[in-house]
Write a structure and sequence with these properties.
Length: 122
């Protein structure tokens, strides 16, 4: 993963962890919401000045922004956020997705069991 991809992903992750919308981050950083979206979608590469504004808004250092997401999956160092690591958050999200899939599968099974039988079925 390239450094610009890491920056974009980390901005998105930290923003979501903080519970902020792109608009909230943009307002706090003094840039436009569309530019935040373009950065997160990797359509634009932010300048050092923009990265500094975003880091100040998120209350993290530039070093932290570059080191939060790495190949090893090391825990992040994010100020004023949950003490859970990104890996723990990912695990919880996966469990929720699995639970939703099980619920959907159960609902489909129940729906199938409730369906009236057609002629010829036993």
């Amino acid at each position: 993963m390239e450094q610009s991809d890491i920056i974009a992903e980390n901005i998105r992750i930290i923003r979501i962890i903080k519970g902020w919308s792109q608009e909230q981050l943009a307002l706090s950083a003094g840039i436009t919401p569309s530019y935040i979206g373009q950065i997160e979608r990797r359509e634009k590469t932010p300048t050092i000045g923009i990265i500094e504004k975003i880091c100040n808004a998120l209350d993290i250092s530039m070093v932290d922004l570059l080191s939060i997401h790495d190949a090893k999956g090391d825990s992040p160092r994010i100020k004023n956020t949950s003490k859970q690591s990104l890996e723990e958050i990912r695990q919880v999200m996966l469990e929720v997705l699995r639970d939703n899939k099980l619920i959907n599968c159960s609902s489909q099974a129940i729906h199938t069991e409730i369906q009236p039988k057609t002629k010829g079925e036993s």
